Amino acid sequence: GLIPGMMYTIREGKIQQVGLSLNEELINNITKHFRDEGPEVLKLALTMTPIYELRPPRIRRLAIDIEVFTPYRSRVPNPEEASYPIISIALTSNDGLQKILTLWRPNVEFGDVRDLPNDAIIEFFDSEEAMIKELFRVVNDYPLIITFNGDNFDLHYLMNRALLLGIDVDSIPFEVVRDFIGVKHGFHIDLYKFFSIEAIQNYAFEGRYKEKTLDAIASALIGVSKIEVDAFVSDLPLTKLIAYNFRDSWLTLNLTTFDDELVWKLIVLISRLAKMSIEDVTRRKVSAWIKNLMFWEHRRKGYLIPNQEDLLNIKGRVVTAAKIGGKRYAGAIVIDPIPGVYFNVVVADFASLYPSIIKKWNISYETIDPPENQCTKLYEIKDEKGDTIHRVCADTVGITAQIVGILRDFRVKIYKKLSKSPHIKQELKSWYEVVQRAMKVYINASYGVFGHAKFPFYTPSAAESVTAIGRYVISATIAKARELGLKVLYGDTDSLFLWNPEEESLQKLKDWVASNFGLDLELDKTYKFVAFALKKNYLGLQEGGGIDVKGLMGKKRNVPKILQETFIDVVNALSKLSNTPESMESVKEFLRLKVHDLYVKLKERSFTLDEVAYRTTLNKDPSEYVKTTPQHVKAAHQLINNGINITRGDVILYVKVRSKDKVKPIQLAKVDDIDIDSYLDYVKSILEQVLIPFSITWDDIAGTVKLETFMK
Length: 712
What we know:
By secondary structure, this protein is an alpha+beta fold. It has a seven-stranded antiparallel sheet. The protein has a six-stranded mixed sheet with strand order 6-5-4-3-7-10, sandwiched between helices.
């Protein structure tokens, strides 16, 4: 069948795939690595190769961003109602178009011409209807439209606003397609949806962006931020509004063009792997990608797709007990760290541990726990205690093991190496980097999907077997590391933190893992130092200067400003730490004083309401929260009761207070209302994680303040 994302031509009424001649060296390389897997796997590998080799075309695309007038400062206009006028539309394309369509408002200051973007065409309109019609004219010239949150806002608003203004529906290039906004003559990629996919965030971009906002993503990936404005967007001088609007569309476009069109190529390649349309693959979680690929492979092989209920009845037996509520079986093993600061820490990582286990142990729904007397080659699955929990049949390669295994081997043995090869052109290396990233997304997400109860091929016994083998491998490797004299500080799922390891002992450990398990133990990163507090919570400074903050909450967006600023200062101070007693003492004293100052500020109420406010957006109308009423919704109801109009999209700023609801919107609160103890508990829960490694207790902070108060 036709593969989405591949290129086809129509000749004499017939659809033909664009031909691609594979070079002999690549074919020999693939044959060498897959020959031992059997003729079926080798044939499949060679059949799949054109998917990875055919580079996608550079499609003309247009990025759109709109700004809407609103009389309420903290309100995102409702796209369903589209009640307020669109005041600016910025258009940026990859063929050189830079145009801003702006509604002329005589009552608004024009501003300083120097604020306007260079090389951009600016058109002013007296009529909003005429402005929108001009947008539609431009849109019709581009096959691909790019937005950031266009499904939920920009295109949704434009479509409904056009209808409200009486523009003929047939002249509107946008339409609702299932749960997104499509383009009638082409297609629409909403980058907010794409970058919000956890597998893209964590595996394709290795967690480089933490928040799923245009500003956070663009800052992390292309090093350019949104323009900061002090005033309300509706009140900005026209020149500043134009600059602000244009920057957003420029960022949106450049998120698809940076690094030789990395994101665009990634999207096309994932579309090919998932056998899904580009519009679907950018809006669906990785579970949908893998489900589609599994369905495709079943049909290609002529297999029946099993009923999920039947799978659970036949293969639903689990043996181990879960330690986390809501789970059916035991998960990964995590070794408790010894709190403290450690220098020269090496992280050894099992390369794609769970996918490797799936392939190596032939884990699949049809191979696990086969019926009696229906398998000639049976292997036992043992957990970390050495207990047999399941059996797996090795007569044939399981379909899950085959798909995950072939993608893993393509990545590790072929494309990861090609992406770093000094013998090929940079343009081709860049493409191979995209290929290996796309495969990484698939294989690293595969176990999580197969272990999810809503996945069509969910098989508890298979998922339990993978985690059990993982625990067995990690436990045995830790024991061997200690036997070799290596100091294991911490272990988490598929990695070990080793303190100042000897190179020879480290190599022996890698060799032992390869010979005993057939797995690869790789050196992932080296930290100048790591500060451990609790399980899954640490802060590490990499050799290259980058800081990893794992599990620590202080940088999250909804953390009150007063705490966020302190946390950032603390992290910056830690980045200067060196392995000397003087440096340790200096940083320790800085931490103590910094947290002490925050404690005093809170105790003495020396803050503004804005500094201690939590900020949360209403994802739906306050009346739609029925089962539970989160704190920001309680604050929203208080505003409504005081005659303030609140709806979906509004940003609620609230503080913790001593009252029945325990919260108040800042519009109704006073500094004296603040529940100081609640804030101190929150500060303690976050900053104590940084203090513990330096042997600073919360009592040291609180006790110092009490003594100072007494001496006054």
